[in-house]
Amino acid sequence: MSTTPRRRTPRAIASPWLAGGTRVDQREKKRQAVLQTAARLFNERGFHATSLDDIAERLHVSKPTLYYYVKSKDDILLECVRAALALMQQGIAEVRQQGGRALDQLQACMRSYAAIVMDDFGQCVIRIGEDPLPPPLRKELRRLKAGIDHEFRRLVAEGIAEGSLQPCDPKLAAFMLAGALSWIGRWYRPDGSMAPEQIAEQGIALLLGGVLAPRPPTSAPRRRAPRKTSA
Predict the structure, then answer these.
(1) Model confidence over 109-129: pLDDT tens digits?
(2) pLDDT digits over 65-122, tens only?
(3) Does residue 38 contact residue 55 with C-beta atoms inside 8 Å?
(4) How far apart (Å, rounded) are the C-alpha atoms in residues 22 and 40?
(5) Which of 50, 72, 125, 182 stands the most exposed, by the fewest C-beta atoms within 10 Å?
């Protein structure tokens, strides 16, 4: 008997201002709390509709306190997007280091990518992106995105070469795969009916295997025996 997956609710971000620890350790924890709280608010309300006052209120601190850890709202968005892209690059690098068939590596990279776009920082990349930032910062982040796209292209090309993927345009295939996985970050909700792992596995299976049912093998038409003619 199948059971319905338990819905998840987003975990509250614990305030590090209420915890102990060394000064250096606490500063980094507080900075991370500012970034994660901001990312969650950006995802919920939008970048322009979220103020530093909103972030401070969610963390139960004063607005001036935030300036010990970040310079501005633009700086927060930059760091949120950087964090997500760094996680994506790290996930791909770890998979590549382990080696194996290109298809297995591609699936592992897709799994890692999908998990990140369902997290606070990853959703910030997909829902907000770098467009609100000044042009020089946008250029830097687009360069990081291009590096991730390049790795997907290489994996597709290697899969074609080893025969595990059918011949196709690696650039187009990489765009389609990463684009479809990225879109999860648009509609994913932590309180939805499926866990992130289920979404990732089923999504990857659909992208690589398709939605068409396999055709049953066709049998050759039976040949009729020639009629006997009377002499």
Answers:
(1) 999 999 999 999 999 999 999
(2) 999 999 999 999 999 999 999 999 999 999 999 999 999 999 999 999 999 999 999 9
(3) yes
(4) 27
(5) 72
